[in-house]
TrEMBL record:
SUPFAM superfamilies in UniProt: Recombination protein RecR (SSF111304)
Similarity comment text for this entry: Belongs to the RecR family.
Zinc finger (C4-type): 58-73
Boundaries of every Toprim domain copy: 81-176
A Pfam cross-reference name: RecR_C
CDD domains: TOPRIM_recR
Organism ancestry: Bacteria, Pseudomonadati, Bacteroidota, Flavobacteriia, Flavobacteriales
Source organism of this protein record: Flavobacterium gawalongense
Family matches, as HAMAP family: RecR (MF_00017)
Highest taxon of the lineage: Bacteria
Gene behind the chain: recR
Designated name of the protein: Recombination protein RecR
């Protein structure tokens, strides 16, 4: 792709690094921004810089937050004795959109995947185990995608807390095997949360 401006070329190259954005789409976006008032582009750049510099991670659940505690963990009306374990913020958003879960979350920040060089020490597992062993938790719900990596992560965490006297459950398999939570429709995901099953039963039946 030939560019008449090095500035446009650089902007397109940067924009095309975003997921799902190819060079042609990046060019359309850049040209659109170029047509907007300068202050509008300034608002966008300021918002991106502020997000990158000021974003925090919740001290309790590791969710992305504007403060040391995210809004969910700071909400006293939530049931803090039930923890739903998810991979990342997109899963939190997907489950919250169902309106069916009133507990809190624990964001792992990924899944165990030896092929990709991701081991347990690189995920937020230690803080979860400490929280469970402190006695402040009655139930944890595994809500990772039903992939090999998701199942491996579930089982690893299960072994770490198997001796604790809590309910360990997993969302019902209304979500197809291999599907990511963020792509599930709200009704199916909501039912999967409400109809969760004991974790031991889930892997013994596989």
């Amino acid at each position: 792709m030939e560019f008449s401006s090095k500035l446009i070329e650089k902007a397109v190259n940067e924009m095309s690094q975003l997921p799902g954005i190819g060079k042609r789409t990046a060019l359309r976006l850049v040209l659109h921004l170029l047509k907007q008032p300068k202050e509008q582009t300034g608002f966008l750049s300021q918002a991106l810089v502020a997000m990158r510099e000021d974003i925090k991670y919740c001290n309790s659940c590791h969710n992305i937050s504007d403060s040391v505690l995210c809004e969910i963990c700071a909400n006293k009306s939530r049931n803090h004795q039930i923890i739903c374990i998810v991979e990342d913020i997109r899963d939190v958003m997907a489950i919250e959109n169902t309106g069916q879960f009133r507990g809190i979350y624990h964001v792992l920040g990924g899944k165990i995947s030896p092929i990709d060089g991701v081991g347990p020490s690189q995920l937020n597992i230690t803080t979860l185990v400490e929280k469970v062993k402190s006695g402040s938790v009655n139930e944890i719900i595994f809500a990772l995608s039903s992939t090999m990596e998701g199942d491996t992560t579930n089982f690893y965490i299960y072994k770490q807390i198997a001796d604790c006297e809590i309910i360990i459950s997993t969302i019902a398999r209304g979500i197809s095997v291999g599907d990511e939570l963020e792509y599930a429709d709200e009704v199916t995901l909501g039912r999967s949360i409400l109809q969760r099953v004991p974790f031991e039963k889930s892997f013994k039946n596989n």
